[in-house]
Task: inverse folding
């Protein structure tokens, strides 16, 4: 123990759950750190950040500045994928204290002789730590403090800014007080924060209606998906599908022999989670798809659904991984009174949990080794939390660039926990947030609370399981609205593709969110050339996202007031304000809506007195705005939204010749 | 590692700085604990508190109930002085899950045979953990579940409340998930929360003007102090006073031979921090004072000021504990350009810090051994934080009932840190909070933020160093106002006695907060029998405090609106609402003020439709109130405040014979 430590560090931010979990960032970010740093008594203190990548032993240092009172702030860069640690330390600034007091003594006309001797010692200490020219300068100053007799000369030297800066730079940190915890940052590649997902059933990719599509067929879709601007192609499970209790069309019991079953009922005689569905092709076909996708700028996201059909090899080879019923049968999935007899859940309370965990890790490693770097995890909230923390850590230790998307539609605290445990992105409640109040409240929760530090939303207007009421009743305008919102409210979004492009909106029955004739249970014929597709609109939205860096930055979503409850207005802007985008969306899919928005111009860094040009990247109109009040008029069919890029109007009349 | 743990615990409250510091409570409190507890999947969970006194090895358990969503709450009692640890654990409620699902299955008319077998196993597990009659009942139920064939009988048994309660009581906690931290509670005796302090210079206690008072003289004051209702008598330092650079009257340089000096300039030839000032008496006199005080219900608070006069024995014997100047002299205290040459501060950065810490601990132990159990620590913020955490821990390990009051008038974060480190009570900014807005804002900060968990305010309207402007200009009404506020806004308060009773309000010079002819620097003649004293008013206030248990409870301060900015209204109420007190204070010491208050009756547990009697314990008036709007009229001289005890008006007209 060192009893001479006098500075303390408290309330470091960012910090998740007292340091239990890391925050998330991407390569190239600077991590902004704040802390309360203070000492006993009246001495001045200094503070600094310590940080290191997990591959480094020693700490690197970053400076901190006093923000206000005892609050200090600084930042450090993260340039490598992986985990960083950081902490803050504070120490007594002896030279700063001496200099501050000297100024007061000079003002009071006090005797200074002994004071200069004290200062000389401090400057000598700094000189010892310095080298080269700096050392010489410091040593020279120390000499002057010791021997110079002209007090005004001495005072000028002692209080000069450049002297202070140089001495501070080399002064030893005597007895630094360290924040008691080392906090963590998990750094991912940029796609963790900015990605556009397209979900596609490969079995629907056959060019001939009625034939089971394959991964080779899927390859032919890549240019189409790329042309719409997506960079992640997410495939539902590609493994053999169980036959026992297989579900028929529209999720019915008693499938016929031609029924293809749900891809999520994984496992059959042909294998389980590391096998290919025979009709989809071979592992080599998978490798080929991965390579071709990469060549078109698309990454394949693999679905990991840790559950088994009764025909899964695990059920025979590892019955101990499942819960047994007293009658000796394996417990199928249930949500009483509903039964899902086509699914056996894995029992994470099995005595043999170690071998189960290891096998599931093997599944990840198997696909990682083939090149998969994005896993979309099905229902992670029905598997043990501790398992996820462990397995994500294991996979990232081998393949640090791997991303995990948590498909957990469940209670907020459970979703947040999964994000904290390591999932890189998370499905959200966006799917059901339709009104202005709902959207504002939800995104404020995601962005303005601590949640932002660890949860990256991935917004989906639809999924194969969810056709929301808003899309069912709102027709094509509803699809346009939800697409604009998903693509512009967060960095990550995705659509369940063909059904979305074609604005499919017929539920299985009134009041249901299931699709009629859902692709989950039958072969569909997907056709990228079909008429009436929204593909061009989608492509435009994705192009706008790519061309405006504001959409790639995090934490810059800001809502602005409107006087019309059906119209939402928000902005995204880069930190340097070189790219400012204002989005206005008419949430009413049935009526034209108009009114006024009141922009927070100060937050946008726009001068109230100057005209800005608002260029609608969606509608292609150009408008001149001045001041915070802005008129809008949005029609569901023709123009449900504005995505306005603001451009500063650089010239004023004073620049014209006639004015001069 | 146990991989089968499925429940997690998050966000436990109370928790200070991620568990780094304990919360504070007193004997007899129940500690209310909340936590987020949840598991993966859809199983029901249970949660419970674990707690133990530091003297105990094993955990005790306290139940928790679901509050809302995944939030759970419970409480545990603290009955011993010392430190308790607590944590929360959650586990899967297998029987509860089974019972919930069974109810749904029954409603859906499903086959239940296997389900009853599953339930039988769970009931058998509980039976094994039970004994006696409970065991027999459980075993009987298990038998029924196994063999009974009448399904309605079985269903009734399985879903009965008493069955569920008994099974839950004995069901083993399988794989409980524990919150990762053990949190702490420091439990003090009740005086830590509720005390009335009286500060008295013993040297002023002589019955003859001009003679130096002694501790024996001080004894004669005890009945007087007790009669005013104080229970802590706080004495400025009683040690020998230095002669070198001794301060004269009114804090002047160059004291004459008859000048007595400041008691805080500790140390002379006669000794230091464990010696008695010869004129005050002997250690035996001190023992006698302590005993006599105890006999009148008064506890002596000792002043601990770790600083030395140049004549202190430490300066000769341990020059290494002080900072040296280059000219070889010891560094005196300074706040440049001010110099305090009569004071040498101890250097907590000394290489010999271990021996310094041990010596200072010895000082505490010396007085603890003589029976002192309250230390008022002078300027703790100018000594190292780590020292305080250590020495308070050391003293409490030997004398657990010891209380420490931090006299730190400094920046909020520093004050809060000292409280977190272990000080039982803290001086506050109350001394300078005069307006309604200031008082409301400050006490909200102290009470409604996490600060309440570790900082217990001790409110002082004046001290020997601080004669606030409000008292200087407001005359006697100002003293009445500040006394009522101090005594009723918090459990602990104190006055610098004689100067307060006599409403002394002349500053040394305009703009100064120092007293003219301050008792710090000269002998005064204190006279409890002096005319014009506020002693009766003070006695009444202290009696009201003692007679109304609402003042002893913590966290029950609630402000109510008034339409007059000069009048503040607040209430204190016991948790069971058996004692409700509403206080109204006219902060304007010059004018009569009247207006309306709007009471939050719901918070007070008072029915809006019923009449309550408001009994003014100060003015002795009685009023009938109905509904939230209440009129007040307060005059500085005659009645600056109401302290209204609310009594429910029990009888209504319906209870009279003629009504029936």
Result:
């Amino acid at each position: 123990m060192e009893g001479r430590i006098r500075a303390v560090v408290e309330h470091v931010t960012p910090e998740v759950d007292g340091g239990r979990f890391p925050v998330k960032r991407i390569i190239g970010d600077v991590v902004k750190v704040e802390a309360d740093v203070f000492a006993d008594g009246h001495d001045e203190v200094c503070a600094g950040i310590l940080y290191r990548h997990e591959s480094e032993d020693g700490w690197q240092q970053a400076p901190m500045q006093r923000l206000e009172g005892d609050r200090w702030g600084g930042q450090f860069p993260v340039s490598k994928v992986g985990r960083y640690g950081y902490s803050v330390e504070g120490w007594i600034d002896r030279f700063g204290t001496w200099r501050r007091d000297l100024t007061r003594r000079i003002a009071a006309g006090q005797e200074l002789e002994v004071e200069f001797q004290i200062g000389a010692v401090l400057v000598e200490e700094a000189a010892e730590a310095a080298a080269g020219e700096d050392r010489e300068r410091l040593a020279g100053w120390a000499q002057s403090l010791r021997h110079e007799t002209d007090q005004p000369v001495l005072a000028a030297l002692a209080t000069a800014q450049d002297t202070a800066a140089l001495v501070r730079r080399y002064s030893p940190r005597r007895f630094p007080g360290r924040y008691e915890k080392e906090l963590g940052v998990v750094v991912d590649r940029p796609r963790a924060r900015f990605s556009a997902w397209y979900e596609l059933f490969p079995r629907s990719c056959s060019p001939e209606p009625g034939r089971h599509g394959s991964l080779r067929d899927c390859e032919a879709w890549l240019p189409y998906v790329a042309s719409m601007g997506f960079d992640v192609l997410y495939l539902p499970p590609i493994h053999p599908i169980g036959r026992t209790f297989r579900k028929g069309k529209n999720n019915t019991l008693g499938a016929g022999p031609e029924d293809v079953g749900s891809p999520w009922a994984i496992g059959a005689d042909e294998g389980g989670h590391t096998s290919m569905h025979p009709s989809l092709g071979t592992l080599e076909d998978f490798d080929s798809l991965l390579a071709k996708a990469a060549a078109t700028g698309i990454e394949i996201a693999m679905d990991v659904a840790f559950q088994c059909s009764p025909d899964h090899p695990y059920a025979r080879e590892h019955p101990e991984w499942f819960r047994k019923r007293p009658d000796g049968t394996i417990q199928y999935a249930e949500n009483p009174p509903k039964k899902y007899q086509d699914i056996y859940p894995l029992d994470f309370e099995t005595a043999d949990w170690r071998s189960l965990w290891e096998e599931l890790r093997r599944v990840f490693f198997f696909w990682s080794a083939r090149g998969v770097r994005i896993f979309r995890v099905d229902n992670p909230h029905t598997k043990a939390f501790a398992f996820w923390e462990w397995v994500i850590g294991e996979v990232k230790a081998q393949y640090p660039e791997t991303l995990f998307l948590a498909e957990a539609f469940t209670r907020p605290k459970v979703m947040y926990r999964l994000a904290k445990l390591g999932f890189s992105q998370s499905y959200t409640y966006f799917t059901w947030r339709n009104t202005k109040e709902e959207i504002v409240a939800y995104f404020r929760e995601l962005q303005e609370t601590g949640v932002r530090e660890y949860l990256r939303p991935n917004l989906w207007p639809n999924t194969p399981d969810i056709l929301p009421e808003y899309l069912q009743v709102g027709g094509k305008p509803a699809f346009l609205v939800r697409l604009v919102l998903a693509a512009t409210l967060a960095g990550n979004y995705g659509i369940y593709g063909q059904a979305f492009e074609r604005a499919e909106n017929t539920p299985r029955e009134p009041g249901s969110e299931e699709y009629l004739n859902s692709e989950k249970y039958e072969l569909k014929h997907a056709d990228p050339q079909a008429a009436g597709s929204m593909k061009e609109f989608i492509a435009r939205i994705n192009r706008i996202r790519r061309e405006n860096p504001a959409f790639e930055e995090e934490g810059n979503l800001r809502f602005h007031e409107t006087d019309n409850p059906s119209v939402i207005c928000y902005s995204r802007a880069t930190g340097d304000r070189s790219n400012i985008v204002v989005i206005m969306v008419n949430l009413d899919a049935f009526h034209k809506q108009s009114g006024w928005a009141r922009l927070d111009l100060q937050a946008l860094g726009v001068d109230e007195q100057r005209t800005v040009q608002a260029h609608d990247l969606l509608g292609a109109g150009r408008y001149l705005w001045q001041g915070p009040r802005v008129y809008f008029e949005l029609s569901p069919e023709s123009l449900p939204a504005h995505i306005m890029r603001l451009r500063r109007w650089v010239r004023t009349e004073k620049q014209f010749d006639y004015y001069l």
Observations:
- Chain A has a mean pLDDT of 95.
- The first strand of chain A starts at residue 7 and ends at 13.
- The domain at 551-659 of chain A is CATH 2.60.40.1180 (Immunoglobulin-like).
- Chain A has 17 helices and 29 strands.
